[in-house]
Design goal:
The protein has eight helices and ten strands. By secondary structure, the chain is α/β, with parallel strands linked by helices. It is globular. A hairpin with a 2-residue loop joins β1 and β2. It starts with a strand and ends with a helix. α3 packs parallel to α5 and α4 runs antiparallel to α5. The strands form two sheets. The chain has a six-stranded mixed beta sheet, with helices on both faces. The longest helix has 16 residues. The protein binds adenosine-5'-triphosphate. Adenosine-5'-triphosphate binds next to β2 and α1. Belongs to the ABC transporter superfamily. This is ABC transporter ATP-binding protein. It comes from Saccharothrix coeruleofusca. One of its GO terms (biological process) is L-amino acid transport. Keywords: Amino-acid transport, ATP-binding, Nucleotide-binding, Transport.
């Protein structure tokens, strides 16, 4: 279980998160939603240790990890795929996967095969430099690289942004399998309401750096929640 409690985050003098709390129970898929600029990415980065909160706590499986550096969070089973993530653009798809494997603590080559089983469409692209991939292919490579670390908790920041519809379906299928079959716990930032409705168990909506609503996914049908998501 991931638990974020009363987190405040500032960029310089600007306070971006105001006492945000959320829970991601083990084995669940929680969708973090809200309009542009409300603080979703800031919350994921804080969870991953890329930003330090001015106040509040982050706990993983009951242990306080607020002060833990990012690489140690990775060792504890957390992985983060940033929004619009570009892998090493000059390296081929294969090299990107290998470099990631070499950086893991387990170094088991079977992890690459496991990641490719989730995204088999990457196989014919092995020799292509990552910089020449389409938006959807880059996103698949980014998630595959995160999977090589063998995470238990995956933080995904808008994996469908800028991705063509057919590839959105592939990403949705992959996330569903990872969650339902492989049992991965997922915190997903997603603006696309229908996708959230299909994938998530529960959701949290941020508005201006505060939790405006949180609940089971069925409540996403409520007019009061939809108003918080419409531009
Ligand atoms: N490095 C930074 N320095 C200063 N302000 C920042 C920085 N990064 C983000 N912000 C500001 O913090 C607020 C929250 O940004 P954040 O990226 O967390 O929002 P978001 O909900 O993820 O938005 P989006 O959906 O557009 O990615 C915004 O007002 C943004 O302009």
């Amino acid at each position: 279980m991931l638990s974020v409690s009363d987190v405040d985050v500032r960029y310089g003098r600007a306070r971006v998160l105001h006492g945000v709390s959320l829970e991601v129970p083990t084995g669940s898929l929680v969708c973090l939603m809200g309009r542009n600029g409300v603080g979703k990415t800031t919350l994921l980065k804080t969870t991953m240790g890329l930003l330090r909160p001015a106040a509040g706590r982050v706990e993983l499986e009951g242990e306080d990890i607020t002060g833990l550096p990012t690489h140690q969070r990775v060792r504890r089973g957390m992985a983060f795929v940033p929004q619009g993530h570009v892998s090493f653009p000059q390296l081929t798809v294969w090299e990107n996967l290998q470099v990631t494997l070499e950086a893991t603590s387990h170094r088991q080559a079977s992890a690459v095969e496991e990641a490719l089983a989730v995204f088999p469409t990457l196989r014919p692209l092995f020799k292509r430099p990552a910089g020449f991939l389409s938006g959807g292919q880059r996103q698949q490579l980014a998630i595959a690289r995160a999977l090589i670390t063998r995470p238990r908790l995956l933080l995904l920041d808008e994996p469908t942004e800028g991705v063509q519809p057919s590839v959105i379906d592939e990403i949705e299928l992959a996330v569903r399998r990872l969650h339902r079959q492989a049992g991965l716990t997922v915190l997903l930032v997603e603006q696309y309401l229908d996708l959230a409705l299909r994938l998530a168990d529960s959701f949290v909506v941020l508005d201006a750096g505060r939790v405006a609503h949180a609940g089971p996914v069925a409540e996403l049908h409520d007019e009061s929640v939809r108003r918080l998501l419409s531009v």
